Amino acid sequence: ICATLPFWEGMKKVINEYADGVTLAELAKLPNVNAVKEASGNISQVADVAALCGEELNIYSGNDDQIVPILSLGGKGVISVLSNVAPQQAHDICAAWFSGDTAKSLELQLKALPLCHALFADVNPIPVKWAMNRLGWIAPASGGAFGCRAAVPGK
């Protein structure tokens, strides 16, 4: 992923704000560029990237509510918030897709939507850390909600 290369640290903002399929196709030619986390929410943009880059660039969904749509465009998986609180559910969506059971994958994706939306009811990572605490998987940091401001009630 581009962001892991030291050279790209200064380019992240530009890439994240301005990257389109043509830009990503050029970046995909570089030997150390392998994938993109697609979290634009724009399925047409994902389709353009897939069409322009083909097998030169792996696409991963960066939005848990769009795993199946991105897999259907050739995506390779998901970089997931959902998997922090429902790892089996996130796994099963992808596993069903890759085993050829697209109907099951879609069913699981739709079933996961309420949780996906809840995990983004506030600024990430506040909701996921709150949920992980409620599950007993992490403890809050002293002096605040997991080192972040408290989640806004009713959001």
Structure commentary:
- By secondary structure, this protein is mainly α.
- Helix 3 (43-53) links the parallel strand 1 and strand 2 (58-61).
- It has helices at 12-18, 21-27, 43-53, 67-72, 82-85, 87-98, 102-118, 126-134; strands spanning 35-38, 58-61, 77-78.
- It contains eight helices and three strands; from the N terminus they run H-H-E-H-E-H-E-H-H-H-H.
The major beta sheet can be summarized as: 3 strands, parallel
- Spans of at least 5 consecutive residues whose pLDDT stays below 50 are none
The topology string of helices and strands comes to HHEHEHEHHHH
Strand order of the largest sheet: 1-2-3
Structural class: mainly alpha
Described by its quaternary structure, the protein is: single chain
> Strand content of the residues, in percent?
5-15%
| Overall pLDDT level | 84
Distance between the termini: 33 Å
Number of strands: 3
Number of helices: 8
Rg, nearest Å: 17 Å
Considering the chains and any ligands shown, give keywords for the structure:
155 residues; mainly alpha; three-stranded parallel β-sheet; 8 helices; 6% strand
